[in-house]
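Good day; I would like, with your permission, to put a structural problem before you. A protein sequence and the structure tokens that stand for its backbone fold form the material at issue. Thank you for your consideration; the sequence and its tokens are set out here:
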Amino acid sequence: MTIHTVEIPEDNAVFGSTTSAFESFGYSAAVRAHGLLFIAGTIGRRADGTIPETIEEQSEIAIRKIEEILRLENLDSSALVDVTSYHVDIRQHLNGFVETKQRLVKAPYPTWTIIGVSGLASPGLLIEIRATAAYPDASR
């Protein structure tokens, strides 16, 4: 089995200083295996490391980070096959998330599971999104 770790360049404009989390917490942003790309949970932390207060901005940042990982692998959002999002205070923030998702995510739609949670890794984080994408050439 061939496994490839996707590296996010340190000077990446979308991830910015947040790339240090991969080393600090010992995980990869994404891993390619068996024709699939497994994208670790992305959060709505800005490139400078600060956390926005609104679910809309956090959702957009998290989705843009997924798009950037896809771009680095020469894919786009049409390659997404399965997405799971984790939401703090889901009843309070779901509408803002859905509005942002509808603006940014276009057909063909992946499967998407939305889960409410009591908290995420850092105070102030409201959303985390993990995803799986499929390569058009399954031999990768």
